[in-house]
Amino acid sequence: MKQYTRSHEPIAWSLFGAGGMVIALFMPAVIVITGLLMPFVFSDPHAVYQGALAMAQNWIGKLFLLVVIALQLYHTVHRIHHGLHDIHVHGPNGLMLLIFYGGATVLSVLTAGWLLAI
Q: Which residue among 11, 20, 74, 83 has the highest number of C-beta atoms inside a 10 angstrom radius?
């Protein structure tokens, strides 16, 4: 009987796909709301800041921000990791995985901590 080895690829590809979906579905709305509607609807920058802060202080807003930021991080590092592989920039596989996915994990944890502190 053949012995199969376990791979990290299903987890990495699922985070990559989820990050791509978040970027495609939510980021245009976030850009329109925060970049166009809020500055033009509210003439007072303090009111815009207070609205953004109120969203970040709500637990649903914190969860939304964490999901948007963390999944985009994983999507980005997966693209960079495979892009480097495509242009034949190789390193020790374990070290490359630690640098890319470990870095995204550390940044996601730091983001969660920062959001909890708000």
A: 74
